[in-house]
Specification:
The chain is built from three helices and five strands, in the order E-E-E-E-E-H-H-H. A five-stranded antiparallel beta sheet has the order 1-2-3-4-5, covered by helices on one side. It is rod-shaped.
């Protein structure tokens, strides 16, 4: 199971630049992304180590947000996060009325919930919705 964390990365907050020479351009603070009307290539987004072009300021901001999210997610250990989320789900299940102490319906089966394929499928289906928009 892989938890999709992309939707959980906070998007950049764009500010309209107030510098005289940056007429109509945008920047973020403190992350250091800029969007400027550059040249015949259109709007350029830029940060330390990355840049790209888009046809509009909104498209350039969206591309910069995607770059930002990719950099944040690259710094995270996906396996550790997945293990923590799975452990939290099991703890919640075991604390619920259905799975109190892992007994029902597992008390007589000789296994724990996280050893049953049907339970794992239900867990994974539930966790895949994490961060989903309502």
């Amino acid at each position: 199971m892989t938890v999709d964390l992309t939707r959980l990365v906070k998007p950049l907050v764009w500010r309209n630049s107030h510098f005289m020479k940056w007429n109509g351009d945008y920047h973020t603070v403190p992350t250091g992304y800029t969007v400027r009307c550059a040249d015949e290539n259109g709007w350029k987004w830029k940060t330390a180590g990355g840049f790209g072009y888009a046809h509009s300021p909104e498209a350039a901001q969206a591309a910069a947000n995607a770059d930002h999210a990719a950099r944040v997610l690259a710094a995270l250990d996906q396996e550790k996060i997945t293990a923590l989320v799975e452990a939290a789900y099991l703890a919640g299940f075991n604390s619920s009325g259905e799975g109190y102490n892992g007994e029902y319906p597992f008390g007589d089966s000789g296994c724990t919930p996280d050893q049953r394929a049907d339970w794992i499928e239900r867990r994974d289906a539930t966790l895949s919705k994490l961060g989903a928009q309502p």
